[in-house]
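Retro notes
What went well: the complex prediction finally ran end to end.
Inputs used:
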Amino acid sequence: MITLYPEKLLSIITISSMEDRLVSMFKKYGVSGFTILRARGEGSSGYEADISGFDSNILVKVIVSEERMEPILESIERKLKKGYHLTVYISDVQVIAPDKFS
Amino acid sequence: MITLYPEKLLSIITISSMEDRLVSMFKKYGVSGFTILRARGEGSSGYEADISGFDSNILVKVIVSEERMEPILESIERKLKKGYHLTVYISDVQVIAPDKFS
Amino acid sequence: MITLYPEKLLSIITISSMEDRLVSMFKKYGVSGFTILRARGEGSSGYEADISGFDSNILVKVIVSEERMEPILESIERKLKKGYHLTVYISDVQVIAPDKFS
Amino acid sequence: MPSLESLLLPAVLFFALGFIARVIRSDLRFPPDLAKVLSIYLLMAIGLHGGYELAKSDMVVAFHSIVWALVLGFVLPIIGYLSLVATRKVNPMDAAAISAHYGSVSAGTFLTAIAYLDNIGVTYETYPLIMLAVMESPAIIVGLLLAAKARRSQALSDVTPSSVGAPADSAPENGFGSLLRDALTNGSVVILIGSMIIGAISTPSGMSKLFPFIDDIFMGVLCLFLFEMGMVAARRIGDFKKVGLVLAAFGIVMPLVGGVAGAFIGHSMLGFSVGGATLVAVLAASASYIAVPPAMRLAVPEANPSYYLTLSLGITFPFNVLIGIPLYHSLVKMMAAA
Amino acid sequence: MPSLESLLLPAVLFFALGFIARVIRSDLRFPPDLAKVLSIYLLMAIGLHGGYELAKSDMVVAFHSIVWALVLGFVLPIIGYLSLVATRKVNPMDAAAISAHYGSVSAGTFLTAIAYLDNIGVTYETYPLIMLAVMESPAIIVGLLLAAKARRSQALSDVTPSSVGAPADSAPENGFGSLLRDALTNGSVVILIGSMIIGAISTPSGMSKLFPFIDDIFMGVLCLFLFEMGMVAARRIGDFKKVGLVLAAFGIVMPLVGGVAGAFIGHSMLGFSVGGATLVAVLAASASYIAVPPAMRLAVPEANPSYYLTLSLGITFPFNVLIGIPLYHSLVKMMAAA
Amino acid sequence: MPSLESLLLPAVLFFALGFIARVIRSDLRFPPDLAKVLSIYLLMAIGLHGGYELAKSDMVVAFHSIVWALVLGFVLPIIGYLSLVATRKVNPMDAAAISAHYGSVSAGTFLTAIAYLDNIGVTYETYPLIMLAVMESPAIIVGLLLAAKARRSQALSDVTPSSVGAPADSAPENGFGSLLRDALTNGSVVILIGSMIIGAISTPSGMSKLFPFIDDIFMGVLCLFLFEMGMVAARRIGDFKKVGLVLAAFGIVMPLVGGVAGAFIGHSMLGFSVGGATLVAVLAASASYIAVPPAMRLAVPEANPSYYLTLSLGITFPFNVLIGIPLYHSLVKMMAAA
Ligand SMILES: Nc1ncnc2c1ncn2[C@@H]1O[C@H](COP(=O)(O)O)[C@@H](O)[C@H]1O
Ligand SMILES: Nc1ncnc2c1ncn2[C@@H]1O[C@H](COP(=O)(O)O)[C@@H](O)[C@H]1O
Ligand SMILES: Nc1ncnc2c1ncn2[C@@H]1O[C@H](COP(=O)(O)O)[C@@H](O)[C@H]1O
Ligand code: NA
Ligand code: NA
Ligand code: NA
């Protein structure tokens, strides 16, 4: 049987212009990789992103070990305090190759 | 340490023409927001959506508190009974800002 | 109250040219369906896929019962051994219509 | 022989190329949005052109064209529905959804017919263009009504203890009114009718700046569009087996029925030239694949999309492009000679 | 009357069609990337054209145009900010973000004005094109400075025990320098200025091969772009209520102020022809919706995007396209006659 | 001097603009699908054009061109592989994957060369176009064979207790046959050869309707394509350090080797004019970045994509566009003068 190892999956929904900042932040805290999907949506700021193509949301996914998560979340919280709109959630996942994400 | 709060993440995969109906349903049941991604796929109805650009799937994600989930699921079940194709799954997530989703 | 049933959600991130192979593999192991999203990202192989449109990542999602998961994971592990780049994670989800996925 | 000439049209050859690309399992794939952009362009271009010409033409004939377009749009799906139910191969819901496609029209087929006529130097009236716009929606409405009827009779025969839902509860979400509105405001109709009006009321100097865009590159865009459609058709025809022989035959017989009806109306009722009547025949023979499928998904969710998509994209569209157009043209020529 | 003529321009009619499509709740939707591709094309085409013409023109006048463009770009947002703060309907952060949009420009409005002038046969200088390029960025910088000032005064009045964060900590991420660089290297500016340089230095034989692409299909692409913009505007105007009457009025008064200022500068300061001065008025009157919104999202995250997007896309853009352009043209004609 | 003239070609200037946009870290980004759509258009346009011309030309010369194209496609990757292995800087898998790119061709480079020749008024034969189509695939096959060989020898030297997998098990998924089919049916080849056939067999009246599409807007589309390629190249060249100096040098020396070989074959073996022989040199010198990378990903997953993408897109493509094309042209002129 294939052994599975627990990791955390961090998901962030925000506007696409935040991408460069998130990526530098990830690199600073040494994540092993990230994946970005285009999205659109509606939220507390009441506007509907995307559709017109001028500005769209992105959904960023990062698999990261629990230890490395903390500084990333702190950095996210600092951004939230400054007024940036980031919808963030974390889920438990299991992976095959744990060394890939550390 | 950053405190995390449990929420539910509802994911729905369906054809893009269902979007308007889902969005009105969400608004009726008072969700705080939603995110939509374009997708394609294959399922029980055997056809492969998208690719031609004429009709594609969407993946809708809604973070919602457990209390608000029930009426949404009931509405989804009613739609399923009427023959609409909706692939639905729910997962547990943890969020930083729980008031955002209630 | 709506009854929910546990299933597994398998997510695979890889380059789009792997799509045909993954789909045949899924069909071989009898999954009931799958969903594909376009993505881009950065990982261990250090390159940034997509953006230029020549080659992009995909995120493949398959809801599958725990029993059927094992042979799929083994097939994935064989692919990893051959050098293919697949970022794989599994999460627990709950579904309304369990017979849909078996 | 016209058929061969039709096959050597670049647009038709690109359709074949797309088809072959899938058959040899090439990895060629167009970006998902390209087909949509090409459709928008094509509808806009023919709308503008048609509106510009129509503004100069006879309103009585235009009115007659609209009436006959409505007749075709309402009658063809009923013929289709009755035939399909008679075959007993599909349930009434599927029959309603499928026949709605055949009462509506395919702009791609229409444009291929125009390219065909242009190529062999046959002229045509612009009235069929209004008919194209008019015929998009009525069949959707007929489809909804047929499905509602089928749903009611099904609900009556379904009164088993376990089915708690009242008939009303099993109807699709929004009422008939909202679905009707959807039919009349669907994107293709808006672009086509909107562009026709713009073409009709714009100042000539304004229009003259648009002609290079809507004329010069038109044929190239049509080729690209048919290239993609060839790939779509080849993918869809793979579901042929699921559809079954009887249904597949319907995908060829129904356009023939429509083609004959359209040729008759175009030639005898509307008194069009050979070119114009051929276009009416093509409209009646063609099956929708842009406007109707999503409408049926929402309004008749019980129907199986594989059926109508395979028939319309995998069988009827290729049949019309490769065989139907020259056939209807010959038919009208025979009528005109008689 | 010029206004009616303006309304019968295909480009303007397509804007109206897009607007109506949303109002009747059509399911018509353009692929998300199409608007971006159309923008890229339009900026490239006017850049190339303008650069080609500018290479032949007077460098002294060009320099004066740049100076006046900078003046407009720096002064207009300050006027906007002070007026908005005076209304007391928005907080200073929102005021800073909104007024940055009005100091910058909208290429779509500018191109509609060109189509309008071409259609009625009015000629114009090419200098306003440099002004278009120059005016994209300065207002972003002014917006940043105003927001920084507002943030500082807010931080001072916020010194409650619970607010641990020092003022510096509450500033947006990267420093002013990096945001300044963002303003000067934003995509629209790069395409526009880059294409102007290419148009100016390319060999004439190289350019001649490009003209069909940048000239012939230009009007059609502009129509498609305004079609989409009509849909965007209709969606945005729905947020009208959230914005409130006073803010909405700002979306009409501010372009009038800009239009008068621009007309004066174009006519009296730069001595342009009626056509050229009209274009300067349009530049000053228009509000950005491509370059500035993402810049404000990053630099002034505290501001509410609903406000500036609704004003710029939902109110000012339609106002300028439908009413403003002929109005500014009449104004300049009156000035010229005086 | 030809080199400067080449640099003032709009297409080349747009390449530079894209490159600069990334260097100054502009937020300019093209929608991901645009490059794909532009490629489809470019391949279709040159295919149609070439096919139309080829139908009128000498089949013996065409046959010779094909033979020499095959020779280049098979021999160049072997030269590349041996040189790379000799440097001892990459493992054999990487060497196989990289050299496959150099045996194949880049349509973008070819089209830039055509724009260059057109601009300076040099004529050329259409045979190089068939060579472009023919040369897409053979190098992929050679790459597969070299990788299979490398894999075998690696498996033999890997016989440690822990490696349970038999050699067969460590081969990429599908067999050689399926990969061969992939090579021959890849999208670029299908569009190019398909369009050539369509251009050759279409009726002249059908083709005449297509010319505005494939001719008039061609140069503009090429500019847009090179604009995007400039951005891609700038992003890729950032990985220069990972690649190392020796590999980077290979990205310049290998096209020079190919260019000389191609110039010789075009001029001396095939007897083409200066223009035609320059095009053959460009084909031999160019490295694929569309067809080969995904093929190598699937067939040689052990190879590092950073290497071949950086070399082909970040080094060889810019080198050829900016320096190589005028260089090969001068070389052929010298050969012709000799
Ligand atoms: N409850 C939610 N569930 C899913 N996505 C959300 C939710 N709330 C916000 N979002 C996403 O986050 C984006 C920004 O939301 P907000 O920060 O609330 O303005 C929206 O455009 C949505 O895409
Ligand atoms: N087991 C599954 N895993 C992931 N996605 C699925 C699955 N089954 C269905 N889907 C998605 O749901 C869509 C509709 O499926 P269905 O309702 O089975 O026709 C498909 O096109 C897929 O995108
Ligand atoms: N830690 C991670 N979190 C999220 N996505 C990842 C991660 N690592 C890799 N990926 C994705 O998987 C792709 C291939 O990564 P790799 O296999 O590491 O080359 C990348 O382009 C990313 O899209
Ligand atoms: Na029909
Ligand atoms: Na302005
Ligand atoms: Na080569």
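What we learned: The pocket of adenosine monophosphate (ligand 3) is lined by residues A 31-35, 61-63, 101; C 13, 41-45, 49, 57, 85, 87 (CB under 6 Å).
What to try next: split runs per interface for comparison.
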